[in-house]
Amino acid sequence: MRYTITPEPVRNLLHIELNIPATETATLELQLPAWRPGRYELANYARNMLAVEAVNDRSEPLAVRKITKDRWLVHPQGAAEVTVRYSYYAQQMDAGNSWVDGQFVYINFINCLLYAEGYQDEPCQVRLHLPDNYRIACGLPQPWPGLLEAESYYRLVDSPLIASDSMQQFAYKVSGHRFHVWVQGGVHFSPERLLQDFRGFTEAQMRMMGGFPCPEYHFLLHALDKEHYHGVEHWHSTVMTLGPAEKIGSDLYPELVGLASHELFHVWNVIRIRPAELLPYDFSRENYFPTGYVAEGLTTYYGDLLLARAGFFTPVQYLAELNRTLNRHFMNSNTAALSLVQSSFDLWVDGYTAGVPGRKVSIYHKGCLAALLLDLEIRQLTRDEKSLDDVVRLLWERHGQKEIGYYHEDYVAIAEEVAGVPLTGYFEQCIEGTAPLPESLAAALRHVGCDLEIVELPDNTGNVQVVIKLPEENNSLQKWLRG
């Protein structure tokens, strides 16, 4: 599949042409993705599309019939190649959508590029008609200006881009791997400080995981005028939207570093260490999976913990950040009706909205809490010889590196292998059950010298507030926070 994209900034449109070889193909079914990786809900991108038209290799019109809200049927009628033309309205600024105006072009290909069913594993090309002075920030190979190549549709739509003449670029290297930081918008921070802190958490993550899975990585940052916070992980990049820009160098700076650390850890967890139900992605419908607590919970946990290991957080600062994360769960969902695995499955129902009070838990917040409990339990059982780090590394070796998806049962088996004992109570109560967990957390934190004060809220909901007391310095605390 070969795509040509021509932005029209005045109307905020992307004019898209798709060329598909169709020899001996009786019909072509064209699908616009119904969702995007990293956000497990239906997105309805088709509402941004203008009319779809098709012609054969002699420029003769072909009939196009819409058969679902985001799927079209074309009869090539013996044509060697079919050309499909349509336009996409790109005016949603966040880390998962697309934007076109007179200042820059920002495209998440997953939003707007149709694919022909059966062609997803074939190589793709994208030709961009852009002003000559525009630079392109993207993880895909660029054999010459304005041309992008991808080994498959899956890689193409996992590689967003920003193109402009005002974008700034910074870079650093760790162990031969090059990391790019692209900034669209005002730079109201010290690039030297940012590169030092980014290098710090990158080194901490690579030490834990034993290397890095791709030669180059791209952080694409939109520094916005408005208040905003969002990030999305990709195969060899991430998009982060943060604002207001003038606060990124001060109040929002820890938010930027924390977001970047979280997204970088995803390069292993969920991008490559992927639930079996998501391998490969089916972009035409929901992809239900019960292990969101691994995909997002572990990433939330390590995104901050590795900032402590990198020295960005002091122990006191890290525990304060952890305390905030825990209270996001305990003050809202301590007695929720759904477990972590049920809430993971139900992401496709209402996972990113508040929903009915007391119904579900956050795979980010309770998932982080669950990761913390498992980490400290393994450390206690093995006298600090093993940890959750070992579980993640085994997931990487046995599943991520081999591109073999894991199931909930695989995660349980690896965790029990590392712990050396069955972990039935942990998985039944914390992962598959709905029992309140403050007491379990208090017991676990005592292993690293921390006390937990639990205060019931006066609203008769069963929710509580927790306060982590400053720890006593001990060997277990050092091994936990310093790796």
Helix content: 25-40%
* Mean model confidence by pLDDT: 96
Global geometry: globular
From the N-terminal CA to the C-terminal CA, the straight-line distance is 46 Å
Question: In oligomeric terms, what are we looking at?
Answer: single chain
Under the CATH scheme, which architecture of the largest domain would be assigned? Orthogonal Bundle
In order across it, which strands form the biggest sheet?
A: 5-4-8-2-1-12-14
Instruction: Report the strand count.
Output: 22
In DSSP terms, counting alpha (H) and pi (I) runs of 4 or more, how many helices? 14
Task: Please describe what this structure looks like.
With 483 residues, the protein is an alpha+beta fold. It has helices at residues 109-112, 153-156, 191-209, 253-265, 292-309, 315-333, 340-345, 347-350, 365-381, 388-400, 408-419, 424-431, 438-445, 475-482; strands at 2-8, 13-21, 28-31, 53-55, 61-62, 64-68, 71-74, 81-89, 99-100, 104-107, 115-116, 124-128, 135-138, 147-150, 161-164, 168-174, 177-185, 216-223, 228-233, 237-243, 452-456, 464-468. The strands form five sheets. A seven-stranded mixed beta sheet has the order 5-4-8-2-1-12-14. Strands 16-17-18-20-19 form a five-stranded mixed beta sheet, covered by helices on one side. A hairpin with a 2-residue loop joins strand 6 and strand 7 (71-74). The model has no long low-confidence stretch (mean pLDDT 96).
